[in-house]
Amino acid sequence: MGHRLGCLLAVLTFTALVAMLLWSYFATVIAEPGGVPPGWHPFADEEAAMTQQDYLDYPAYPVSGQAMMAKPRYCKKCKAWKPLRAHHDSISGRCVLKMDHYCIWVVNCVGLLNYKHFLLFLFWTCAACLEAAALLITSFVQFLTDSGQSAGESAVTPAIVFVAFVIDAAFFISLLGFLIMHARMVARNSTSIEMYEKAGLLPHYPHDRGFRENFKDVFGPRSWWWLIPHYTPAERRQRLEQALQPQAHEMSARTGGGGAAWLPPLMVAGWLEVFQALQW
């Protein structure tokens, strides 16, 4: 009775893990990563945006020896202004807010609004592979230690167990390393682009606000939603507002103090209405 109950519990647990894995995967595939709204600019009016051509060639991150100045950024491919931490996605042909990378496995760009879903996809996949390997390890060890097989016993089942365990263990180890790498970036409020393509150009992580705030920035303030690949409409709007209008402490970190004196008030609500009207 106890053995049957244990088997049933293992099956139910594995089924739940696979269900969460699939939910997180399709949420990452379907979710809008957070494109920059058409016509967005960081200036008081359209005329000011048209006259800021001297900023177009300024790099997103300063090279060594230059003063860290927070100036407007312009995408020459989109021919449009873009906020801090937004980068051009060559696959979709647009700029994505807080872009991390384009993932061929989810056929979507991973950015502001689906980065949490992507991390949960990695987490639940690791958990499912770990349980599968744990369930198979006894049979795997038996396969390695048995010198022979009983008369009439098929060699197919042990071979399947061996292959399944090796695949599960390989996936778990590789994805665990990937998950740890992203966990470090979450802890520092950084992205793959900022960690690798801009390596050596920044003396510190300018968006780091401490582990707790960095974690909430990705997973949200409510702990009961941390393992669910979903943002409420209010959370989506708040994240878009923060991405389209950088906070003063972030600008201060880039300028070395003094805040964002160059940045006039942004009509964030107006851009969000455009964003939502286009169902981005």
From TrEMBL:
GO cellular component, one term: membrane
EC number: 2.3.1.225
InterPro entries linked: Palmitoyltrfase_DHHC, PFA4/ZDH16/20/ERF2-like
Subcellular localization(s) per the UniProt record: Membrane
Catalytic activity field: L-cysteinyl-[protein] + hexadecanoyl-CoA = S-hexadecanoyl-L-cysteinyl-[protein] + CoA
Signal peptide: 1-31
Keywords assigned by UniProt, alphabetized: Acyltransferase, Membrane, Signal, Transferase, Transmembrane, Transmembrane helix
UniProt GO MF annotations: protein-cysteine S-palmitoyltransferase activity
Transmembrane segments: 121-144, 156-181
Entry comment, domain topic: The DHHC domain is required for palmitoyltransferase activity.
Assigned protein family: Belongs to the DHHC palmitoyltransferase family.
Protein name in UniProt: S-acyltransferase
Originating organism: [Myrmecia] bisecta
Lineage: Eukaryota, Viridiplantae, Chlorophyta, core chlorophytes, Trebouxiophyceae
